[in-house]
Sequence to fold (1237 residues):
Amino acid sequence: MRYAMVIDTLKCVGCSDCVVACQTENDVPIGYCRDWITETVNGAYPNIELELKSERCNHCENAPCVRCCPTGASHQLDNGIVLVTGDECIGCGACIESCPYDARFQHPDGYVDKCTFCHHRLEKGQLPACVSVCPTKCMYFGDLDNPNSEVSELLKNRKYKTLAPEAGTKPQVYYLI
Amino acid sequence: MQEELFTSGRNLPHIDPSLEIWHWPISLYLFLGGLAAGLLFFAGLITVLGKEKDYPAAVKYASIISPIALTLGLLALFYDLTHKFYFWRLYTTIRIESPMSWGAWVLLIITPISFLWVFSYYSEIFPKWQLKYENLNKFEKFLKGNRKNMAYALIPLSIILGVYTGILLSAFNARPLWNNAILGPLFLVSGLSTGAATIILLAKTQKEKHLFGKIDLALIVLELGLIVHMLMGMYAGSEVQLEAMQLLVGGEFTMMFFGFVIILGLIAPAILEFLELRGFKIPVAVPAILVLIGGMVLRFVMVEAGQITRYLY
Amino acid sequence: MTTSRRKFIKISALGLGGVAASTTALNMFGASSYIDELVKENVAKNFKRTATYCEVCFWKCAAWTYTDEEGSIKKIIGNENDPHCYGRLCPRGTGGVGMYNDEDRLKTPLIRTTVNGEETFREATWEEALDLIASKFNGIKEEFGAESLALIKHGAPGKHLEHLFQSFGSDTIAEPAYAQCRGPRETGFSLTFGSWVGSPEPTDIRDTKCLVLIGSHIGENMHNSQVQEMSDAIDNGATIITVDPRFSTAASKSKYWLAIKPATDIALMLAWMNVLINENIYDKEYIEKYATGFNELKEHVSTFTPEWAYGITGIKPDEIRKTAREMASASPSVIIHPGRHVVWYGDDSQRARAMAILNALLGSWGRRGGFYFKESIKVPEFPAPEYPHPKWGWKEIGAKYPLAQMGITTEVIKCAIPSEDNKYPVKALMVAGTNITKSIPNKKLLEEAIDALDFMVVIDTMPMDVTGYADVVLPECTYLERYDEIRSATNREPSIAVRIPAVAPKYDSKPSWWIAKEIGERMGVGAYFNYTDYKEVIEWQLQQMGTSLEEMEKIGVKHFPRKSGPMYLNETGPHEFPTNSGKIELYSHELKNLGFDPLPKYTRHPEPQQGFYRLNYGRAPMHTFSRTANNPNLNDLKSENNLWVNPKVARILGLKTGQEVWLKNQDDIISTFSIKVRVTERVRWDSVYMVHGFGHQEKKLSRAFGKGINDTELITTVAVDPIMGGTGMRGNFVTILTENPHKNTEI
Fold:
């Protein structure tokens, strides 16, 4: 099993519901976020392109944050999800330095925090909070090892990209373009 | 026109607009760690070669500095942790892929050895202050008898420590400035050079000063070579690496990097040491102090500039 | 999936005292709050859910409020069976938690008082505040009549107070949602099809093949089901055509973005009609069968060629033809979206008419993928005496606008200014659930009127700017803490939703139904409030409708079968539209008789002078007007608005992204605060753009105070729609000041 998220930039309107849903689901303190929205504008009036994207930890297959963690607090499950165990984390900051997506942050309580793909919800058979709430239904989540899953089908049939592939981390959040 | 912005979220404390995760304690620690590595390496090497009598500063007086440097370094490191009271988690596991992990373990071994090393010279360094307990005297004698063994351990450990201070940074692919294989050797050489400089400062005999002057000169030349090598590597690198290099050669860190590290910290002391070896009357303390300052600034520049460089945003 | 650490902790936490012991051991090292929290999270995550419907905007999505065992609200999740949200709330609905948690909320009643010559508020008890209101209201009622008590309201609290006002005999009631928002489209569509568009709009977006948005920016407005259905339409390969001078989010999803010159939309639509009719690609059968006035229309648009429109709109004739053909080929599954905030230039009812006529030509009204026939179920009225008949009310006040179908706020407010010929003196004003300083333009008029009032009461959950003008401020509890009216949705099929308090009201805040009842009893109209708790009203109504509160508590939303017939036109038989003629009126005799243009015409509107830029404003998806700016969760997403400036303009004025500027409008009104520039290609060189609802002046809004500019304060020139009284607000122009104009003045 290899979890991945697929996000359709052709549908995303950047409403940020994913951001606030994550905040309430995961008790992310105000002023912090585990996911966020970027906007890219290209061209000149009136020939313009706009891309809105919901971004987060990419749960990289080749996760540098897991490798550099001195205590094993940052770890990767067999399903690909990268997690941080707060009470094993010493707050050294190495994983933050190692992340090409700058997706990790120091929780005000001291440990390092980030997106968990809502691992606690997956265990109950629910989708991640961001995916379940998205009003444009532009976010998909599933198992890439299963060739018939929705995410596999989407990646088979649509054009996609990942963020900063040159960093070589094999990110598992895919953007349909 | 191209525009890239955050619609919402982000502005994470200490993350945006650029990382401020590692602060001055880390730079200080990298410097002190490198310095201690240099000192312990030379102490070990001289001892293994059996030249303790000829070079007393290297094995005796300068080595007082290393436990102090290591202790201060460790305190600085601890100070910069944000989840401090879990630091013991470092020692519940060994993670081969994490430089921080094996660095922590090396420190756990080398720091006590550095204390024991100094203790083995206790009566020679502090002849006036007799040890009051017989057991301690016995222990000192025991250590004295095992100095060579300690020296054998110190040589590889100090090299690991020196290289580790560089690899700690270079292991981060995400920070293009750090992500090059030169940083490990560079920091090792710089650490050895600061170690040699400290020995020059504390050496009493002309012979010892000259030997370490020569060593330091060779190390400085090597260090300059490594820096050129590093910049050339970045120059031939990807866009993010070019941007990173720009910070050093044509950006906000250029003054610090060229002024303090390359000119004042390397070229100037090299010339002075060379002239001194040629017989010119130059107070050796001057190049030695310049080397130490240069070594320190190098760490500060690399740690701070490195955190500005990123892939996205 | 392998055993994860989280699971491990969970199991051991559930299992034995081992973890408790190790937790204590960890406590020696200081904070082990994280473990405690994990244990708590996994052992005690027994959330209770309570049915509600959202009040962060007017869409009123049904949802579940989740509270933990300590009774604090953790999250709000959409109700899966709700046709307004299909289980997915928008960011504001999800962030509704912040409305409850906001520590800046109004906490107790406040009464204006003078201390050392300075006016200020003092805290008061409910008893005192309500007694004061009742005695003031009664006094005015006796002296001037109940009609002199006016109500400006919005949303659920408004309904309860409307009941109060009607009970004591006042119909002097208005809401910004009409004359400052969607009024013109209701007039334009009812003139044409005989019925309002209404809310939610009966647009069959999910099945459409072509969606045409004219200045409507779905995606930036989070009209939930519309956004969701637009996304479905994108999946289904529908063509989207967006007409907007600004490159909106919707424009970026469109096959055609027509970057129109502002204020020329009617010209474009006339040209579209011209193409549809000239090329014979309109829905002939539909027009023949259901419409009247086609020949007049054909004659009227015959000269409005795409070439004619090009000179006005700046859109190439070719593009106009191509888009018209695209619509025709999708017909009848095409939607010319009526929009929502449509008070732009004063000829807005006519623009709405043009939209309606286009929809008729494309045969989309009453067709799949066009507009469906909406239906709602009537909620029975709780028994109460009949309302007294006021001598005058909103109708009389707005009489000079013959087709106004609701109260016009600005006209009601004008009645507060004393003058010889004012037949309708307004003496006291109650404002409930709307921040009128940011929802009604022309601040000078507003302040003059408020100044002249004898008494003013504001009911809100937050210390909005408007509370600063009040004599008495009443703290309303949020929608999460109260019962409210049953929501009867107008949709594809009728449904109802209930709002049940998830927690008790925080601080000393009270629900509006309670406030209305208490004032009513004090004013001697207690008979209209024959209940002790509004719950009884809902219980009674639900029973009448064949369900019960117990059932609704479990399901939140209940659907009822349609009774009015099929959702789309039954084309086998005749169909009578609820117009005067029973047909779709392309040519409007009603308008003709009232002295207005029977067919829409293009009129030229003012353009910016040299150095001035048209002030355009819009929505951000994470905010509802000005009411959410201080919500901690939503403020976290967007804490201020930016001034969008085209790079060409930025180059001329030397502006950079992030630079703070001030604005001055054509009437020399200067913005109170500054705004940060965003240099972007998304906006035209002749206009600037900002999101509405920022620039709060009330210091008690700790997060929102002084952040960004309030666009409404710069809207001082209002183009009033002569047909229905809408206040056109898009004809204001600003110049950009880079130096602080308030340097020597205190704000």
Observations:
- The longest strand of chain B covers residues 3-8.
- The radius of gyration of chain B is 21 Å.
